[in-house]
Design goal:
Blueprint lengths: L1 H20 L6 H14 L3 H13 L4 H10 L1 H4 L1 H17 L17 H13 L6 H5 L1 H15 L7 H14 L4 H13 L4 H11 L11 E2 L7 E2 L2 E7 L5 E6 L4 E2 L2 E4 L3 E14 L5 E4 L3 E4 L5 E5 L5 E7 L6 E4 L5 H5 L3
Antiparallel strand pairs: 1-3, 2-5, 3-4, 4-11, 6-12, 7-8, 7-9, 7-10, 7-11
Length: about 325
């Protein structure tokens, strides 16, 4: 009996431990907030309208999405916020969707600055100060009065949901890493886990694939890729050019271009290029890689980002591509 009880107790410990270690996912509303925010930031209005419809059909209310889009004026600008609200209005007029709770403006004459300062301090975990705000105190006033006062006090969305929207928006924009990293920490202070933050980054990075679009599934070469890739041919005359898009964690096998070589021009997201015997090179939008003939290499997406590049074939008589072994999970998982 004691042995049986020990086995049962050990099993319970493993079960509890397994649940503790399990990854926490964003809820369905938060996933939809991510995509609505990201497509607003990148001004992809067709995709934004589809994301809004999906969100409304899966549980978000019209007023919850309004709150997201109003808040985004502070993170991606009034023009994109207004475009987003126009897209929401168009979708809402065409369907019968739940309006939901309305945001509550603060009473007239209240101390906006104090309310905003208190909200910002609670949101971030400590008072927000610094040389930048001493240099430009007006921006500090606007943040406290309008953003953390007027907007964050309106209700409807939780502060965690508002940070989900902010992180997604900043990740969809280029060259705002300091602000993105700061809001990731704020999101964690408000209960987001590492796995939930990674999910926000992974989902929102898809909005960066906007220059040429994702294209169609790359079925002809699927056996040479781990996970899913997409292909959009752009030119077959003079020089072959195609836009190749990789889902997060997708990469092609090691391979060699014989005689002709290849040029890669990154058009969106974050990924890697690696030559045999050398460390992997991180790639971001605008980077260019010249691949010499006869060099064994691979390229693909980062674990938390979609990734796309132009693949330009260098013409050569008798040129060919030799596909080799896959990039192992052990090799790939060492990359950050």
């Amino acid at each position: 009996m004691k042995k049986l009880l020990s086995i049962i107790f050990a099993g319970l410990i493993l079960l509890i431990g397994g649940n503790t270690m399990a990854k926490e996912n964003l809820n369905k509303n938060q996933q939809n907030i991510v995509m609505i925010s990201a497509y607003t930031a990148t001004s992809e209005l067709d995709n934004l309208e589809n994301a809004i419809k999906k969100g409304l059909n899966e549980g978000l209310t019209v007023n919850e999405i309004k709150e997201v889009l109003v808040q985004l004026y502070a993170y991606c600008g009034f023009p994109k916020s207004l475009n987003g609200l126009s897209a929401l209005m168009k979708v809402a007029k065409a369907g019968n969707y739940k309006e939901g709770e309305t945001g509550k403006p603060l009473p007239k004459g209240c101390d906006l600055h104090k309310i905003g300062t208190d909200n910002q301090t609670k949101l971030c975990g400590s008072p927000v100060k610094g040389e930048l705000f001493d240099f430009a105190p007006a921006i500090d006033d606007y943040l406290k009065d309008h953003l953390f006062g007027d907007i964050f006090a309106r209700g409807v969305l939780s502060w965690q949901d508002r940070e989900v929207a902010t992180i997604a928006t900043l990740n969809a924009l280029d060259d705002v890493e300091p602000q993105l990293n700061a809001h990731i920490q704020v999101g964690k202070h408000n209960g987001l886990t590492d796995s939930q933050v990674e999910e926000i980054l992974t989902l929102s990075s898809k909005a960066k694939m906007k220059v040429y679009g994702i294209g169609t599934p790359n079925t002809a070469y699927a056996k040479y890729f781990i996970s899913n890739s997409y292909l959009k041919p752009l030119s077959k005359e003079q020089v072959g050019i195609a836009n190749v898009t990789f889902e997060p964690k997708c990469r092609n096998n090691w391979h060699i271009h014989h005689k002709g070589g290849q040029i890669l021009i990154v058009t969106g997201g974050r990924g890697y290029y690696q030559e045999w015997g050398k460390p992997a090179q991180e790639l971001k939008t605008g980077d260019v890689v010249n691949i010499a003939p006869e060099v064994k290499h691979w390229h693909g997406a980062a674990h938390d980002s979609w990734f796309s590049h132009l693949a330009i074939e260098v013409p050569a008589d008798g040129g060919s591509t030799e596909w080799l072994e896959p990039v192992s999970d052990d090799e790939y998982d060492k990359l950050k």
